[in-house]
Design goal:
Elements lengths: L1 E4 L10 H9 L2 H12 L2 H7 L5 H11 L4 H9 L9 H12 L3 E6 L3 H10 L8 E4 H4 L6 H10 L7 E5 L2 H9 L3 E4 L4 H4 L3
Parallel strand pairs: 1-2, 1-4, 2-3, 4-5
Helix pairs in contact: 1-2, 4-5
């Protein structure tokens, strides 16, 4: 069996509201930045690898000319979003020791991808993976799943996919994978 893990909220926290609260401590500013950056179309384009972080910043600054310092502060500190989830990380060696393949499949943009791969050594445990920014497709589009399956010659029926978003697990199931809507490390441990 091959274990395929999403990264955001499975391996590494991705909680924009919490991040903005700790960074800004300014509820109106937090709400403005959440809508502008994390809920806007540019975030998806970043994940698709269609724009760079610098291009996104220029767009954000044009949209919020009165809040340029706030916008720059958030964009300059995006890596503060990315803290590992220790309970899940602790299970990765067990997955490997049990003889399972270990892969990741995640919507991620280029600059943050480079950061996490350089910063967190647990990625060396993975047999491979696909980032959306490399293939210009985001989950839940079927194409990103087939990129992973084709690149590593995996059969869908041999794959167990963990993701915290129901549309993403549903897409995996439509392709023949077994999928688990991730709520915590215990979801992975059940299959060990």
């Amino acid at each position: 069996m091959h274990f395929i893990l999403d990264i955001g909220n499975v391996l590494i926290d991705f909680k924009p509201e919490k991040f903005l609260r700790s960074l800004l401590n300014d509820p109106p500013g937090e709400d403005r930045m959440n809508r502008l950056i994390f809920q806007g179309p540019e975030w998806v384009k970043l994940d698709e690898g269609r724009i760079t972080q610098e291009e996104a910043l220029a767009i954000f600054l044009a949209k919020e000319p009165l809040h340029q310092e706030l916008t720059k502060k958030v964009m300059d500190n995006l890596t503060g979003l990315l803290t590992p989830i220790p309970e899940t990380i602790a299970l990765l060696p067990r997955v490997k020791m049990a003889g399972h393949g270990l892969y990741f499949l995640s919507n991620y943009h280029d600059k943050l991808r480079h950061y996490i791969l350089a910063r967190y050594p647990f990625f060396s445990l993975f047999d491979g993976g696909v980032f959306s920014c490399d293939v210009h497709i985001t989950k839940p589009a079927a194409g990103i799943y087939t990129c992973l399956l084709d690149q590593y010659r995996l059969k869908p029926e041999d794959c167990l996919f963990f993701d915290d978003m129901a549309p993403n697990t549903a897409a995996a199931e439509r392709l023949g994978m077994r999928a688990v809507l991730f709520s915590g490390a215990g979801d992975i441990e059940r299959f060990l």
